[in-house]
Automatic annotation (TrEMBL):
<feature type="domain" description="VOC">
    <location>
        <begin position="13"/>
        <end position="127"/>
    </location>
</feature>
<dbReference type="InterPro" id="IPR037523">
    <property type="entry name" value="VOC_core"/>
</dbReference>
<dbReference type="Pfam" id="PF00903">
    <property type="entry name" value="Glyoxalase"/>
</dbReference>
<dbReference type="InterPro" id="IPR004360">
    <property type="entry name" value="Glyas_Fos-R_dOase_dom"/>
</dbReference>
<protein>
    <recommendedName>
        <fullName>VOC domain-containing protein</fullName>
    </recommendedName>
</protein>
<dbReference type="InterPro" id="IPR029068">
    <property type="entry name" value="Glyas_Bleomycin-R_OHBP_Dase"/>
</dbReference>
């Protein structure tokens, strides 16, 4: 344990969120449509970084170094990323209209879980006021 006077060189800030994707081009199209994303830049042939509010950006990564011997990658099997909305019902309906795979219905009038095109579990939550 460090004393109060010791300062960590690691910042108390998230620089980005990585999401493993199987096909970068398909993932870019899907996330742009679902989250209304604009812009973004591709790096190193496997990363696509899109600026977002709250973090430095959402990073879609085909993760070539993390694939198994069959060339596949693991997906998030628990909702590890929370996206915010002001209108949970409209967000849920939007996902249904766009044929997004919904894992739960709206829970506690506050959140629901869905899968992206790679099977990653993500969550939409009503922003606390």
């Amino acid at each position: 344990m460090t004393s109060h006077d010791d300062k960590s060189p690691i910042k108390n800030r998230i620089g980005g969120v990585f999401i493993p994707v199987r096909n970068l081009e398909k993932a870019k199209e899907w996330y742009r449509k679902i989250l209304g994303l604009e812009g973004g830049e591709e790096y190193f042939g496997h990363l696509f970084v899109v600026p977002m509010k709250g973090t430095a950006g959402l990073i879609l990564d085909s993760m070539p170094k993390w694939r198994n011997e069959d060339g596949d990658i693991s997906t998030y099997q628990v909702p590890s990323i929370q996206l915010l909305t002001d209108d949970i019902e409209a967000s849920y309906q939007f996902m249904k209209e766009n044929n997004v795979e919904l894992v739960t219905e709206i829970q506690d009038n506050f959140y629901f879980v869905f899968k992206d095109i790679d099977g990653n579990l993500l969550m939409i939550c009503k922003e606390a006021s």
